[in-house]
Amino acid sequence: MEGSVIVLSIVVLLFAVASAVLGFMAEASKLTPADIKYSGGVCVYPAKPAHVMGICAAALLAAAQVIASAAGVCCGCSKVPRGGGAAGPKLKKAVSSAILSWVVAVVAAASYAQGVAWNAATTRDAVTDGWFIKCHYLKGAVFRRAALLGLVAAVLGICSYAMLRGPASAAAEPKPDGQQQPAAGQAQNPHYPPPPAQAV
Predict the structure, then answer these.
(1) Which terminus of the chain is more exposed, N or C, with fewer CB under 10 A?
(2) With helix as H, strand as E and coil as C, how does 58-115 read?
(3) Residue 132: what are its φ and ψ, rounded to 5°?
C-alpha cells in the first residue's frame, strides 16, 4: 500500500473516530424526561452537553468527508481517460464508493442535526393527553446511529481513494513501442527488415 494511502487513511480515520467518540458521549448525556421541567404551561428544556458534542461530532465528520473527497478528486482526475473514452471498472467502483460514502454521511449528519436540535436549551408547548400533560423528547439512539454511520462513511471514502491510487490493470498499462497488443479483430502486422540490395 502506498504511503499516501496510509497517511490519508490515518487522517480520515482520526477525524471519523473522534466524531464517533463525541457521538457516543452525546448519546450518554442527552436529554431525558427527568430533565424536562413544566412551568407556566410550557415545557422547559435545559441545555445539555449533548448539544455541543453533537455539533462538534458533525463538524469532524464533515472534515473527514471533505479530506477524503478532495484527495479522491485530485487523484481521480488523472485516472479519467483522455478523449472521452470509457472509464475502467476500478474507476467506476471508486466513484460509486465515493457517492455511497456521501449518502451515508448525509444521513449521519441529519441524525446529528436532529439530536442537536432536541438537546438545545429552549421551551416548547406542552401536550395535553386527557388529565396528563406531556412534554415531548427525542427517543431513539440518534447520536449512536450517527456515530456508526459516520465511521461507515469514512471507511467508504478511504476505500474509494485506495482504489484510485491502486495500480492500473495490466491491460491498461502502456507498453514500449513494438510491444503493444493488437486490437481485437486486427491482424498482427510484424515489421521485417528490408531485403538486402543485390549487386548488378
Answers:
(1) C
(2) HHHHHHHHHHHHHHHHHHHHCCCCHHHCCCCHHHHHHHHHHHHHHHHHHHHHHHHHHH
(3) -105, 150
> In what helix (H) or strand (E) does residue 127 lie, and over which residues does it extend?
strand 127-129
Confidence bin at 86 (pLDDT 50/70/90): very low
Please give the pLDDT value at position 83. 44
User: 130 is written with which cell numbers?
Assistant: 386527557
54 close to 77: Cβ distance less than 8 angstroms: no
pLDDT in tens, 153-168: 999 999 888 888 766 5
- Nine cell digits for residue 25: 458521549
- Whole-angstrom distance, CA of residue 104 vs CA of residue 12: 15
Would you call 41 helix, strand, or coil by DSSP? coil
Amino acid at 70: A
Please provide the size of the chain in residues.
200
Residues 155 and 148: their CA atoms lie apart, in Å, by 11
